[in-house]
């Protein structure tokens, strides 16, 4: 379906999620990359031979991994289009284990692309500010002839536009203590197609939230438990006094790479094990060629605690695993948005994230930790009292990141005349 006669020619790469739910006349060019950075230099050459689209485009939408300056130089016909550059990550602050490993060219390509683009959109404020504030320091690594004030040239073009997520309908996968809260809290973020599959037997529309929970013998807390105040109190009784509560189920759904700091996660779990605390763990996420050794070591040491281990090709199985978990943990040293954490919250998980990177932009302070000791302390407390997280109503407004919320902004961005007036005003 065309957007009021506007034609949209996106150039994306597969390592960005395929969730962009755009329904316009478009020509989609995807470079399938196992290690997208290693092959990024080839993209413009590959796209040079791209056939002209059947309908003349008016907008070029590209990922920040592509060298837009190079592409426009090779394809002069694309230079006249409105050029939108979307940053899902930036190379200026990517964590490297050794400073000499940072490749200057990739960051430099992103700066050049910004200079060529008409609009530069970032998936988070953290991504935008960390990029713009790092340009000056980054350019100082050049031996001489260092251009100045590039950030001032680029900033007027910039805006934050969150990555749009289509939240799947997961009610049928949820345990009872999650289902009752979820059905009310998330009704507005499901797509119309997903709404058709909603389990209508969950509850009556006339019942209050409290009445539903009372039927299940549950209570809710709208704020996180005060860990210091409750540590000297006896553990809360489980809902069913005839048996102990299930062990706390912790999930880590991230790429198996060093920038997600799996070392910290597994070190924390091993401390819980040493203290003879009861817990279960699921380690999900994609693996690539070089998997850190800590994964094999941790699997052997935590074998009695593992529920799920490894990448789940089936999206449905992945969602089921998230729905079964109680707490989702991030130990990332590199995160510009974090779809996995937001999806886990959608599936009813209590989030624990570093008080850094993009996380304070998305999650209230309740769900942030500042040190490894704080992370361990929180998990230890929840292992002793898993009902605290099971009764908790998570205070994260994930509807902000739904496609239904962001649709109009993307439509405006992808119009040939959209978002250009404000940019021209800034630059004049």
UniProtKB/TrEMBL annotation:
Supply the CDD domains for this chain: Glycosyltransferase_GTB-type
Q: Which GO terms describe its molecular function?
A: tRNA-queuosine(34) beta-mannosyltransferase activity
Matching entries from SUPFAM superfamilies are given as: UDP-Glycosyltransferase/glycogen phosphorylase
> What's one Pfam family the UniProt record gives for this protein?
QTMAN_N
Show where the tRNA-queuosine alpha-mannosyltransferase N-terminal domain sits.
Answer: 57-165
Catalysed reactions listed for this entry: queuosine(34) in tRNA(Asp) + GDP-alpha-D-mannose = O-4''-alpha-D-mannosylqueuosine(34) in tRNA(Asp) + GDP + H(+)
Q: Does the keyword NADP apply?
A: no
Quick one: where's region Disordered? 189-216, 222-241
Q: Point to the regions of Basic and acidic residues compositional bias.
A: 206-215
Q: Which UniProt keywords are present, listed alphabetically?
A: Glycosyltransferase, Transferase
* Enzyme Commission designation: 2.4.1.110
Q: What function does this protein fulfil?
A: Glycosyltransferase that specifically catalyzes mannosylation of cytoplasmic tRNA(Asp) modified with queuosine at position 34 (queuosine(34)). Mannosylates the cyclopentene moiety of queuosine(34) in tRNA(Asp) to form mannosyl-queuosine(34). Mannosylation of queuosine(34) in tRNA(Asp) is required to slow-down elongation at cognate codons, GAC and GAU, thereby regulating protein translation.
Protein name as annotated: tRNA-queuosine alpha-mannosyltransferase
> Which organism does this record belong to?
Triplophysa rosa (Cave loach)
Q: What is the lineage of its organism?
A: Eukaryota, Metazoa, Chordata, Craniata, Vertebrata
């Amino acid at each position: 379906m065309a957007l009021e006669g506007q034609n949209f020619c996106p150039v994306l790469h597969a390592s960005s999620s395929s969730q962009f739910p755009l329904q316009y006349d478009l020509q989609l060019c995807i470079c399938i990359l196992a290690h997208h950075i290693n092959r990024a230099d080839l993209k413009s050459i590959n796209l040079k031979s791209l056939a002209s689209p059947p309908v003349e485009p008016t907008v070029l939408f590209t990922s920040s991994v592509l060298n837009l300056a190079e592409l426009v130089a090779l394809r002069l016909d694309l230079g006249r289009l409105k050029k939108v550059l979307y940053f899902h990550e930036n190379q200026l602050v990517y964590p490297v284990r050794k400073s000499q490993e940072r490749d200057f060219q990739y960051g430099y390509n992103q700066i050049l692309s910004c200079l060529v683009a008409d609009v530069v959109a970032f998936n988070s404020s953290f991504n935008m500010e960390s990029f713009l504030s790092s340009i000056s320091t980054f350019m100082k690594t050049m031996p001489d002839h260092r251009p100045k004030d590039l950030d001032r040239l680029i900033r007027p073009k910039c805006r934050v536009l969150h990555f749009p997520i289509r939240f799947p309908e997961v009610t049928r996968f949820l345990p009872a203590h999650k289902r009752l809260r979820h059905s009310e809290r998330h009704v507005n973020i499901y797509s119309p197609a997903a709404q058709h599959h909603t389990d209508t037997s969950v509850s009556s529309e006339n019942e209050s939230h409290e009445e539903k929970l009372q039927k299940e013998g549950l209570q809710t807390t709208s704020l996180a438990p005060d860990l210091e105040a409750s540590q000297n109190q006896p553990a809360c009784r489980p809902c069913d006094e005839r048996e102990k509560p299930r062990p706390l189920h912790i999930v880590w759904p991230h790429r198996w790479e060093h920038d997600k700091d799996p070392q910290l996660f597994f070190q924390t779990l091993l401390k819980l094990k040493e203290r003879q605390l009861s817990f279960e763990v699921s380690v999900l996420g994609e693996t690539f060629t070089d998997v850190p050794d800590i994964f094999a070591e941790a699997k052997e040491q935590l074998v009695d605690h593992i529920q799920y281990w490894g990448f789940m090709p089936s999206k449905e199985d992945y969602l089921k695993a998230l729905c079964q978990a109680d707490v989702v943990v991030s130990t990332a040293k590199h995160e510009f948005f974090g779809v996995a954490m937001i999806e886990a919250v959608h599936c009813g998980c209590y989030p624990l994230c570093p008080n850094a990177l993009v996380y304070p932009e998305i999650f209230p302070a309740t769900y942030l930790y500042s040190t490894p000791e704080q992370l361990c302390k929180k998990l230890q407390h929840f292992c002793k009292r898993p009902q605290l997280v099971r009764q908790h109503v998570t205070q994260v407004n994930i509807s902000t990141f739904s496609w239904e919320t962001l649709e109009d902004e993307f439509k405006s961005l992808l119009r040939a005349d959209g978002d250009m007036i404000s940019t021209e005003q800034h630059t004049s």
